[in-house]
Records
---
Amino acid sequence: MQTSLENDKIAELKKYISDISGKTDKPESYLIAVLHRAQNLFGYLNREVMDEIAVIMNIPASHIWGVATFYHYFKLKPQGRHSISICLGTACYVKGAGNILEAVKKELGIGLGETTEDGLFSLHEARCLGACGLAPVVMIDDKIYGELTTQKITEIISGYRKSNRKSKEG
Amino acid sequence: MEKKTIAIYINDKPYRVEPEQTIMQAADKLGFHIPRLCYHPKLSIEGACRVCIVQVEGVKNYVASCAYPVSDGMKIHTNTQEIRRARRDIVELILDNHPEDCHTCERDGNCELQRLAYSMGIRKRHFEGEKKNYDKDLSSPAVVRDPDKCILCGRCVRICSEIQKVNALRQAYRGFKTVVMPAYNMPFTESVCTTCGQCINVCPTASFVEKNYTQELFEKLSDKSLIKVAQVAPSVRAAIGEAFGIPPGTAKEKETAAALKRMGFDYVFDTQFSADLTIMEEASEFLERLQGKGKLPMITSCSSAWMKCMEQFYPDLIDNISTCKSPMSMMGSLLKTYFPEKIKTAPGKIFSVAVMCCTAKKYEAQRPELKINGLNGVDIVVTTREAAWMIKSAGIDFLNIKGEEFDHPLGLSSGAGAIFGTTGGVMEAAIRTAYELYTGETLLDIEVNDLRGLKGIKEGKLVMDGKEVRVAVAHGLGNACDLLDIVRKEPDKYHFIEIMGCPGGCVGGGGQPYADANSIPLDEDCLRLRAKALYDLDRSRTIRRSHENPDIQRVYKEFLGRPLSEISHKILHTHYSKKEPKGIIPRGLVRAR
């Protein structure tokens, strides 16, 4: 069942698509942009949203599914509130990113590409975040944490948990 | 005016060819068959497999000849040791993650990949790669998808989107993990797949095959407590010979009847008989609609893939669809009512088998609304391919068999019934009868040439007692959709429309014999020859109009009463309902909202 909030999001997506349609005679070439927008709005691409896009843009659902599965950026499952990306690029790896990854996996109890049961964190790997001088680095949402140790990253994660609890109570 | 030509060299020999074509096209005409795999002349250029690479002097890399245009002075090499080795490596790499279970594979002996590997001279293997390991999709009653055998040539995706415009299939995920699948990896039954089976026809391997019922059928044939009855679709006889090496266009009507009897059927009836019956009902229904009782244009309902397509994409036209069941299902209905009465047995004793050119008929046979007093009208559907395999497997010498007649009382057919198997045939047959029913006069010029041939959408006109009747014919679901888009805009443009789901009509069905080593799937010349076989059968018949078939007259006299009678409505007619799996909107089709 869709809540009114979801309907607002659908309305926003529809407006985005109709704005694009006004600009071009090949609106279907904007499919990737539309999927980006949808993921921003809904957090991930669920089947209902892709169905909706198929109907509005008159693009076969099989084609949308092909594009959505091709790009790693598109998430097909609900994502945690915070996205943790562990850099496994060369520099970070040499500086012990492997251990960082293991520590985070243990701390969260999930593997790569998975989301914690409380919906707080999703875990991803990254290939070089362009901050090699700070290796090993981890990006949580839009923030970079550098020169990490297994202990430091565990503390950082605890910090996110705490502030989440606070914001819930407050 | 003389056409402009350019000079090219193939393997150091000079030739003059027309510009604006690909290297492959030019080479084909000059007698050089460059090996190929993903290429199909009716589909867009994919350039995915790289098997058709050639060397062009001055170009650093090998070029895909299916996509690369010729230019003046071009020096092309198709068969140097270097390009032979490169091509062989490419095919070996395709084989690399292929299951290599040829001897237990459905397409053993009929596989394009197998033939290609042989012609490349692959006699030992240099690479050994990771195999794919996916589940087969067995959900559909008609089409089985096996991603493990897929080589990602994309022909199925292209025929489904470009020719059929159903868009059920697409490549999903990427790299080694790429899989051809319906949207959201849904099982086929929940997808928009119409079960037309064209993906099977164009698949070079066994990644798509029909759901096979041959073992089950052999079991039933050995069950002495059942009365085993077969019916044979018109276009089966037009193509089954190909499975035995007989050239396309050779009708094997009586031979097919004889072979099925040898296989253990107690009765072999003819779907052409029930095609005549369909015409009686459909022509009568059309005339009722023409006189104001019901919606026009009336659209035919023989093609099961088309029925599913219509229910999904054109539910707004449901009232335009003839309520007549397909000839297969009309025969099924009679086999569980009239026939058991006639031979004084219980309907449940009759085991009804349909030999069809079609995979979608497997889907149709299990549609619940087609049941007759709780029984399936048709219990098992086998394709032409399955039937041919069974005939071989049962050790029946099809090539030397003496033909036999179909059995009475449901085996006699008119020429009109025969042409049902090709695009335009149903309309032509309907015109022959409708004209006479309407005007009381016999239509003398019964061959409607405007409705013959492989043009996507054909139109015709007929004047009955001063009334102009406009008809149209489409074959292949893509053309059907184009025609219906016209109907949506101009509802009064036509009175009567025939639609067949497969290219060429039933002769190009999804269950017809695979293309042999020297041809391509759905080759138009082959479709024309199969159609010609049916037109020749029509011409060879003394009775060429459905209503003149004495056995049809008898079934009305003894059982049905008259066309559109109460009992006809009960057992020969059906209804349709909107089907809307979510997210089904295919390109070019706007859902009625």
Note: The interface with chain B takes residues 47-48, 50-51, 54-55, 58-66, 69-70 of chain A (CB under 8 Å).
---
Amino acid sequence: MLISVLTAMAEQAVNRLLTLEPSLANDLQGAAHKVLALTLTDLNLSCALHYNGEYCFVYGHYHDDADCHITTSLDCLSELKDPSQLTRLIRSGKLDLDGDLHLAQLYSKAFANLNIDWAEHLSRYLGDAGAQHLVQQAKQCNARTQQHKKSYQQVLTQLCQDELNVTIHPLEMQQFKAQTRALSSQLAALEQRINALTD
Amino acid sequence: MKEENRDTTHFGYKTVESTQKESLVADVFHSVAAKYDIMNDFLSFGIHRLWKRQTVACAGVRKGHRVLDLAGGTGDLTAKFSQLVGDTGQVILGDINDSMLKVGRDKLRDLGLVNNIEYVQMNAQALPFPDNSLDVITIAFGLRNVTDKDEALRSMYRVLKPGGRLLVLEFSKTDNEALSKLYDFYSFNILPNVGKIVANDSESYRYLAESIRMHPDQETLKGMMEEAGFEQTSYQNFTGGIVALHRGFKY
């Protein structure tokens, strides 16, 4: 039931976007009356998008035939935004695609190209100045959050590597790998010499 | 005795003559037609919309399909199917009750859905279509009101194309004891009273509660579908089994 609620909300959101951003409808014209199914292996969830040229239906628990069926994990989902990454993900085994690759690329491209002018849409309710101010504040807030996140990550990394010594520095890791490889080749050479002596 | 059993059927908890049931059910739906949608939302807390969403997801309706929304009432499923089949497809909203059909037709026309929908008053036991002529049939909250369910299922099987599917969305039986008690209390105490207050009709809503209890459970209905000829039959429970969606294919 939760999935039905979530897909209903997603359907409302996508269709709201279709009305707000006519470019999205144009980009999706090639997907009209085709079904794109998506299975997320880690959540054991299958859903599908069915665009009819005007309205997009979002189905939950979808187990029927689809024109394109993508099977991937939640981690890779964000990478699907870039159409050029699709083939790389398929080759690396992180994504399994069955059916029309073009349909997946079309959806990926359509949502990647989406550039919502929030200020324009909000101006109807808040006025031009209010909407502009709100959007600017939101952007600044987002930038600050990203900056804080980055700096906290750095502090945590330094703390773990230098102060608490619970993890090692990447350079130490590289050095360790190089030494291990050297030791491995020395052992292989030694093994060959022993074999030669015993034969 | 056998003769007597064959000529009687259930109408809620009452046993009535088979020939009477259609007109009794018709009276119920003539009575509730005008407030059917609002009562559905009110009594199911809007959850019926989620059950119907999942039915659409399982229907596999595509462009060009010919779909029958049987006992379609006020056309909730027809509205979705009409958008999915496109200009080359067709949706038939079928109901035995002309009051419900009229409400459905007005509602769908107000939504601007006019191009690919036909409205046909029909009896599920004798569908007025040639053999192998439909891609998908749905019957949502209608099968329990049909006098002879086996005959209706056979009729649906006959008109479906090979590869076509039937979806039956209907109230069913819950295994959860606590939920079952709560549901019984709601059905027999709250539901008729709400029906009386909102629609000024407690009897129709008492019939609703009783007819749900007399409807076959999930496994029995699955078996009935298989007997009618359907293959790959399966069902999924919604809201703890209060409602179940059965699906079967004709090959």
Note: The radius of gyration of chain A is 25 Å.
